[in-house]
Amino acid sequence: MSNYKELMREASTLLDAFQPYEQCVETFIEDVSTFLEKKYDSEDTSFLLDIVSGCIEQKKVLDVVVNTFYDHHGKLELKADHNQFSVVCYIAIFLLEDIGLQRFSKIIKSQDISKMHKFLSFLFRISNLTTWIQGEWSLIYDAAYVEQNWIGPLLRWSPRVEELLEQLSRRMSSGSLPKKAPASHTQPKEFALTKPKPRSLPIPEPIPAQQKHQPVKPNIFKPPKEQQLLEELRQKNRQKAQRVLYEANTQQFKCAKPQKSEKTTKALSEIKQAQDAELKFDAVFTSGTPSTHKVNSLPIRLNTTTILREGALYNKQLEGEVRRLERVAEGASEPSGFLQWQQQMRERDEREQHHLQEQRHLEGKISHVEAALARTRITHSNQQRAQLKKEETAELMRGYAARRLQEERGMKELVEQVGEGHKNSRVARAKLHDFKQRVVREVCEQSRELLARALDEAQEEMSRKLELIGQIRAIESIPRTQPKLLDDTETAGHALLGEMSLAELRERLCVLRAAQERHLQDRKEHIQQEKKDREQLLLDQLDNIATYRTAMELAAEHRQEERVCRPSPRELLQEDERLQALRHTLQEKQQQRQQLTHTHTHKHTQHAHKHTNTHTLKQWDQRKKALEDHQWEELEKRLQKSVHQGAPNTV
To answer: How big, in percent rounded to 5, are the helix, strand and coil portions of the chain?
Structure first.
């Protein structure tokens, strides 16, 4: 593997020849392998196949680096060298550990030095590897895998690659002149007549190409759902990586911009959530809970888990109340004053909010009524213009109806002439129909006779086979009795240590069965005792739960009585002067709308009486047109029916 320049050129050519949307990767590699085996040895062939298949599989990873190189530093490079840079990038990322720096240096030096120096300095730059290259690769593969298997080795090889780049820069500055190879002299060798000629290696047999398997039918095998679940999990991980990358990019200047700590942010969010939960924008005022949803309408049977969980909750609340009372007894402050002030502020905020909502509601109604008044005026003007248009259209329709009536009369006469011509062909079609029916009857009789004859022969053959089968089954059903003599008390006589007779085995089994029954009985008694203890514990918990619920119901009734005694927000809104002024304005607008509607209705009725004669003439024209259309359709149906009756019914 000395001519790396030719190998790199061959790899770039193969990548140019691959069409991803028209060829399969496996088929392309198989075709290329057969071509390369004829041209190169096995080592070069395997090296080329590894590079080509790797560049095709890792195209997304390589395009991230190569495309960015073209956009920023390779604007003067040819687009035809894209695959050459991809091959060099693949060798540097995936094969540098395997081939070593020496072979990598030979590969680089076999190419254009200026291009390789520019590309390798861009690829192995630490600022590029640790920032955007790692970020883009993390969007394709897992971030931990990228950092461990790709970024880490590249950073580890970076110092040694810098030495290679210095060598390339020195060669670029000094100008590389081709050295003349020393002239080779012929060296004589002694004859070895007694040494046999080495045996040539046999040509390996070609591996037979396997046929492509047919895809499995969906009714036989369906792909498992795990693949879909893995794909969904992969998408979620990708979105999570994108979110983490976005947060890292947006928060990279966090040191220069002072921000609040996580504890402060969390406390502020909790306070905001508590305030939002206390607001009642969508509260519904009802007359009470329906009878079907009463708390004590039907008894609810609790299971064991619910009883224990609720009992533990009540015990925890009871312990908290005891601790609070102990702190109060020791001299701690009582937050009742603050809670009362907080409740008053909430009620004031609710009243202001209701007042603002009612004001907006009335203003919306007023604007709606004003818009309705404007629409009524526009509708009235449109009706006047439409009435004038209708009168002009009526005159045009009368002229069109007269022309249409004359055309229809001419068409009716033409249809009657065509119908008379069809009646002459009925007699010939009837004769042809009778002849065809007679031929069909003769053919049916002959086929019926042949079928009857074949059926008789098949029945005779079937009866003969059934008779033979019955005889064979009768012979096989005869029982074969063989007497068996067995003594239960004798052993088999094999001289084994654990050998015993059948009677002894039965006795031992009876003893073992009795021991198992005693063990099961003891276990059953133990389980019953545990069950009784557990039931007693549940009963105690139920008593505690019932006591706590009774106390909670009494407290809820007390709070409900206090809430009923308080005046409702709607009563307070009825006394507001600004809202009363808005209601008065709304009533005036509604009265204006009613008056305008009444005036327009009266004018419309007068205009309708004025144009009664015009509408009557138009209605008469419409009825006449509908009657003529109906007569025309009946004439066409009669003509079509007569034509179908004259056609022969061929078989």
So the answer is: 75, 0, 25
